[in-house]
Design a protein that fits this description.
The strands form two sheets. The chain has a six-stranded mixed β-sheet. It is globular and about 40 Å long. It starts with a helix and ends in a 9-residue tail after the last helix. The N terminus is likely disordered. It is an alpha/beta fold and 181 residues long. It contains six helices and eight strands.
């Protein structure tokens, strides 16, 4: 095994202990940890294509609040939070909120098949080599990064969250403030 794989497995194991909701699907309450983005760490750039072939970049989204949600079809907590992510995006569409679902290392055909059973209309970006997930997350799924209008990440939510509850509202509302002019 490579060093990177061993570290990833160790993080996943630690998350399973620290965040039991990630390892035990069907829990009544979502388990997550909210971490501030390290102040000295710049936002990693990305250029990822979506299922329609459109390329998305963080630079092109500057001026809009962004939630980057890293997920996979095999991740039950990821599937659990998808409906609330979609509702969040709809609720804050007028404020310009962009909610992007970044899929970890799965082919488009597999994602399309998945969407037949769980329809999801948010943009799904493809991370075929896993580099975006490695740059943005501890590779625990789901992980969502909240980014301000200035393109600066604010927090990471590691684990499943109900994006319509009060705790999520406290994280999202500060991002929705007026764009600076």
């Amino acid at each position: 095994r490579t060093r990177r794989r061993v570290i990833g497995e160790a993080l996943a194991g630690a998350a399973a202990v620290a965040l039991p909701g990630l390892a035990l699907p069907g829990l009544a309450r979502a388990a997550n940890v909210v971490r501030p983005w390290p102040a000295a760490r710049p936002a990693p750039e990305f250029a990822l294509g979506d299922l329609d072939g459109k390329t998305w970049t963080l630079a092109a989204l500057k001026g809009r609040p962004v939630l980057l949600n890293f997920w996979a079809t095999w991740c039950q907590p990821c599937r659990n939070e998808m409906p609330s992510l979609e509702l969040l995006a709809t609720r804050h569409e007028r404020a310009g909120l962009a909610v992007l679902a970044v899929n970890y290392k799965e082919p488009a055909a597999k994602i399309q098949q998945f969407l037949q059973t769980l329809p999801f209309s948010l943009p799904i970006l493809l991370d075929p080599d896993g580099d975006a997930a490695s740059n943005w997350t501890p590779r625990v799924f789901p992980t969502t990064v909240l980014i301000g209008r200035d393109g600066v990440p604010r927090q990471s939510v590691i684990g499943e969250m109900d994006w319509m509850d009060g705790a999520a509202r406290e994280l999202v509302e500060p991002l929705l403030g007026r764009a600076s002019r």
